[in-house]
Design a protein that fits this description.
Blueprint: H1 11-26, H2 39-42, H3 46-60, H4 68-71, H5 75-84
């Protein structure tokens, strides 16, 4: 997995992008997306999770593990991982 393409992205911008995508996937207002709630508790299923990871890959031009939302189960965890490039 390569996250170096995301190292230059600021966490606020990435958080806003993810919230926008999740709100669209869930059909809710952006304000209803809780950054600390687990994706599964938001109603994100495996198909949605893989779709979101695919959109991240396409938008940021990097390869990511399709199970990323399960190993980093909240927006806060995911953004921290992606911005810091941890393995």
């Amino acid at each position: 997995m390569t996250t170096s393409a995301l190292n230059h992205i600021d966490s606020d911008s990435l958080t806003a992008w993810i919230i926008d995508k999740l709100a669209h996937l869930l059909g809710v207002d952006k304000g209803a997306v809780d950054r600390e709630l687990q994706f599964s508790d938001m109603g994100i299923d495996s198909i949605m999770a893989v779709s979101l990871v695919g959109e991240l890959e396409t938008h940021f031009g990097t390869d990511l593990d399709p199970t990323l939302l399960y190993t980093h189960p909240t927006i806060v965890d995911l953004v921290s991982y992606l911005c810091e490039g941890k393995k």
